[in-house]
Write the structure tokens for this entry.
Amino acid sequence: GAVVSQHPSRVICKSGTSVKIECRSLDFQATTMFWYRQFPKQSLMLMATSNEGSKATYEQGVEKDKFLINHASLTLSTLTVTSAHPEDSSFYICSARNSHYGYTFGSGTRLTVV
Amino acid sequence: SQQGEEDPQALSIQEGENATMNCSYKTSINNLQWYRQNSGRGLVHLILIRSNEREKHSGRLRVTLDTSKKSSSLLITASRAADTASYFCATPPTSGTYKYIFGTGTRLKVLA
């Protein structure tokens, strides 16, 4: 079956620094990956759609300069939270789409900005 | 917002009982999916039901879909403590986009 690896699973960073989260499809190629954000006890909110080889498409209200997305290969998309602030603390989840397997989600990254 | 609503928001039952969760959505859909999320973890796909299906089973799971009411339900029979998790429905709009919209989720707690 399809596996999506997300790394790191937890990260604590200081306010003002940048954090990179990786999302890898391990056994399939993903032309499209999605990044979600989830606040405690709330649902997943789509942040952006990441397309291999092109610019990401951001949802309304998501700052593209703050949440940098790079999808340089068919198996890797990265989300970089730039100049992180405590309000960026959240659970970030990626998913990868493949025509055969459909959607597969990563295990998530809990970001804490102190 | 296109986000769907789930009902109830939280549900606490005894082991062995059945758990029913409902999801309402706003747009026309081609399919609806249910996911489970254990605390602090990613999502696990449970079941997909297509718009031309009314009911689908998978093990102890039973999903129904009523497109006229724009609603779906997830029934977990003979619940176990390990079923404790949050459950979300997700729908893609029929416009062709692959952006799945998640419902607000139901937090299920199964007491041993």
Observations:
- Chain B touches chain A through 20 residues (CB under 8 Å).
